[in-house]
Amino acid sequence: MDASNWLRAARLALIRGGPSAVRVELLARDLKVTKGSFYWHFKNREALLEALLHEWEVETETLFRDVEMRSDPAAALQFLGEYVQKSMSSPPGEYPPDLAIFNWAATDPKVAERVNRVERIRIDTLVRITGRPDRVELAYLVWLGFILRRHRSPGTAEDLPLLWSSVAEYLIPAHRKSKVRKP
User: Fold this and answer.
1) According to DSSP H, which parts of the chain are helical?
2) What is the pLDDT of residues 75-106, one digit of tens each?
């Protein structure tokens, strides 16, 4: 049993019940191992929660750095859309969960500070890519609404390709695609 197994189990617990559900005893039971295995990888529960939040931050920062490296805005949004589709279609707990992290931030001011910083990276990157600060905030709020609705109604995940296409067109209208450049 390695740290990645514990992190995946912790992600699932966070999705199901928030940070209070991320309990060493419960995770050990789910993994069918002793609690002692946990302590080979993490000092304590707080270290596991920190690892969950840190992996979400790093994953997001890396993704948006990769997005910004794309040659043009349409390619950047396509790359981001492919990542989102892959993460949405993967088994639960495979990727750090935005909705669970956002819910956690709603109850913990220290987590909220970190989430706000990461959201600023997302929004600022999209503004640099599209040159459309007036549209990025609205598009981001659409995304947040989609992930909230998807959690409540999992069948809506099928709507992702159409939604993503609409958001991309909103951010980079077809007549502007060749004119938008990264600064």
Assistant:
1) 3-17, 24-31, 35-41, 45-68, 73-89, 98-105, 109-130, 133-152, 160-171
2) 999 999 888 888 877 777 787 788 899 999 99
